[in-house]
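Summary for the steering committee. One of the milestones for this cycle was to obtain a three-dimensional model of the protein with adenosine-5'-diphosphate bound, which we needed before selecting residues for the alanine scan. The sequence and ligand used are listed below.
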Amino acid sequence: MFHRKRYITLFKGELFMAAEPTGIPVLILKEGTQRTAGRDALRANILAVRAISESLRTTYGPKGMDKMLVDSLGDITITNDGATILDKMDVQHPAAKMMVQIAKGQDEEVGDGTKTAVILAGELLKNAEELLAKDIHPTVIISGYKKAMEEAVSFIDFISRQIDINDKEVLKKIAKTSLYSKAVGNARERLAEIAVEAVTKVAEKRGDKWYVDLDAIQIIKKHGGSILDTSLIEGIVLDKEVVHPGMPKRVENAKIALLDAPLEIEKPEIDAEIRISDPSQMRLFLQQEEKILQEMVEKIAATGANVVICQKGIDDVAQHFLAKKGILAVRRVKKSDMEKLERATGGRIVSNIDDLQPSDLGEAKLVEERKIGEDKMVFVEGAKNLKSVTILIRGGLERLVDEAERAIRDALSAVADAVRYAKIVPGGGAVEVEVAKHLREYAARVGGKEQLAIEAFAKALEALPMTLAENAGLDSIEIIMKLRSAHAQPNGISIGINVFDGGIADMYALGVIEPAAIKQNAIKAATEAATLILRIDDMIVASKLEKGEEKGKETKKPGEEEEKEKED
Ligand code: ADP
Ligand code: MG
């Protein structure tokens, strides 16, 4: 049975074996391996990528729709965020998976413009298909696309505007443009302000360059209240309460001990037994424990600390002694928060209380417990080193709070990119149309078959404004024609789509602006993905290991150890 089946499979799959003249098949690949080659492989991959990019199209731009994603456990996510949608879609096709990685890469590099990258990659491949049908070889398309990409990236640099990064109004417009596509409703203004404040607070100038470490911006979500209650705190917020009711709830000019050691009597690792024969011994034993804890607290107090923030536990007795000393203490704080505190307060995390020195203490103007919604949280404000802020996101629905977080993260990245590179371009499809126009002129200069590929690249770029128009319920052909003729004029560079009135307008005047880096990175990422896929002409997919399948049940032949029955 088994042999007959394999024999058939082998003859069906053309290159699974190389037949000798005698007709005896020679096994090359494992049975069950699927192989597609040449144009078929290319077509299958292009189809998969386009399917992904098509699925994102309707979510693109300020009038884009949201997606509801339900995972295998029934958890619901409602989002408009490209990277999140692709991540939750759990795609299977290897080429489609590459798109997910592109989106993630774009998300990590520049933080926004994920859908731009994915949609553009889909369009590049769609247009490549047409060229392939005209018998243009993939290598020609690839080199044409690469030239077009390089030209586009440097041209964007050329048409971008330099901004003054101290101009908060410009930064706010950038944040707002990024927030337009997210369902944050009337809180856009507020969130944009917060994003700008947060980024400018943590931005640092080294030499003549600006650095922004987005990790220094902590985001805490607390559902309850409304998104409008979202606030920025200059400092760090710990989602914990003060451990003991007898402790102060507010300490000014705080000297903070950051401990990585428990304020508890540690249980011995080995099983030890203490036999106590009379009550006085018991009392002595307990007194001894108390004494050890008291000594720990004495040591901490002796350094001058008035706040203790502990990554581990704090025993009831120790809490009592700390309270008596008027020390505010918080326990079981996350390691990441401890590290943030270390950076912000200028203190040092100490893992042995005996080592604690006054110089290890961090400083902050105020440590205070406040009630947010139903919960109490500890705020560390006015820290010695101010480069640390917290955004406290509020909102009625948990899903709204989650989406608000994604929206804020995008806005933060956009503002950070603007601060880092200080270059902006007009949004609303303006830059895409301008670059497409330039590429068409460039294509004519390059000539040959590559010219066609560069023109195809230009057409792919125009698909972005067309998608914006479609999603706004506009006639995309009409809009693109209007944009092209506007861009033919000398001052047409910044004309884009006003999705709210259906016309075209100057995007700088409308305040729809984006960091140049986002567009450049999206174009690079999309081109890389498209050319990578165009280069594949052979796809060999190993058969999946079936669950519970035991290895080595069949009589083994050399080279067939892990052979699996085909799934059908
Ligand atoms: P991405 O994941 O690529 O950032 P978005 O859904 O956030 O996708 O859409 C970004 C696009 O929306 C950009 O081309 C941007 O210029 C455009 N856009 C944002 N706000 C506006 C607006 N008010 N008017 C027109 N276009 C806008
Ligand atoms: Mg965006």
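Key point for the committee: The CA atoms of residues 6 and 31 lie 7 Å apart.
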